[in-house]
Amino acid sequence: xxxxxxxxFNVEYENGDKRNRRIITFCGLKIKYxxxxxxxxxxxxxxxxxxVLNNQLDNSCYVSEKEPIKTAPKDVKLIAYYxxxxxxxxxxxxxxxxxxxxxYNVAKTVPQYKGxxxxxxxxxxxxxxLETLDIMKRxxxxxxxxxxGGFCYYYxxxxxxxxxxxxxxxxxxxxxxxxxxxxxWDSSHWTQTWNGGTDKDIMYEQKIEADTAERFMQDFLKYAxxxxxxxxxxKPVLVISSPNTFNxxxxxxxxKELREISxxxxxxxxxxxxxxxxxxxxxxxxxxxxxxxxxxxxxxxxLINRKPEKIMNEKFTGSCFDMEEFVEEKKYLYETKYKTxxxxxxxxxxxxxxxxxxxxxxxxxxxxYKKWLKDIIDWTRKNxxxxxxxxxxxxxxxxxxxxxLEPDQKYGYAFxxxxxxxxxxxxxx
Length: 429
Description:
30% of the residues lie in helices and 20% in strands. The protein is α/β, with parallel strands linked by helices.
């Protein structure tokens, strides 16, 4: 019986490429398909070591800094997420080692396979310290020159305890830093994931108590009152990242209280968004959000996993996804049940943060990023009314996740230039 089945069934590989299409022949009928998990073959350690030591950065795609943006849409604004993890704090000194910042993970990263772009190394602003105002001034100039209309700062608040708050505090104090901004409250627990650990290694726990809303608003409103603070529908914007962290009834009451305090203190409601994904959509109405916010790669689940034929580091257990397929098939354009603000990213590769374990790689190019951004600018114009047209970019400076518009040694200013071109090419008179 086995021999009979084998005679009817055969598997070939198109063009000899085991990563791509397999051809199944059954009873003379040929069927092509692409497996989600291609077979991985490994090479010996000596070959891997030789590759890493001789890895030369291909900068043939390097783009120099060019003239500031000349024509941008007046009705569509770009907001980039901004990470403050680039200065030492006592907590990180204690948990991860003296002087730890995000740069620690970025600088020690190596390629995991041939063609893997790592490490991501900064130019222009370099390995900066965000306690330095001159750095923030340069960042704002770079951003505005290339069409970024605001920063969405990560905000780490744990029942009154704040972490990594110095950059946003310095920004708030210096009114010459002319950049619109809003806050992204990372409402997940503070864990060891900053340095290759797991979510189970909790150092600061998020919880809601009787006076949590009052204490939260006491701090938040000093930002919301700033004339540079971003408002949607004349309401200060607040992003809550992880509703699933909390008991849902407690969170519902918490959000209600936030709104009540805001109306009382500044005579305005809040515009509260959460991230699309992690089953938050089914809780949207119950928790009284104003909108959903895309936060790719969160929610990208159906791409073909294209693991390289040869994984140079045999310990690498991550995933490599096909960004060309994602963009060319416009998988980011879909029907939405609830109001949604679109987002995109230049690249994504968190192997630096994950210490090579279970990292996810969405290796893109300036061309693919530009096409994606243009599409969602057009989508935003068609689906959002004038005055409410915002697109988010992940991110300005997520270096350990490979998601940065800030210039790097490989591409130079190419992703900034692609941002500018996307805006100029979608500008309307």
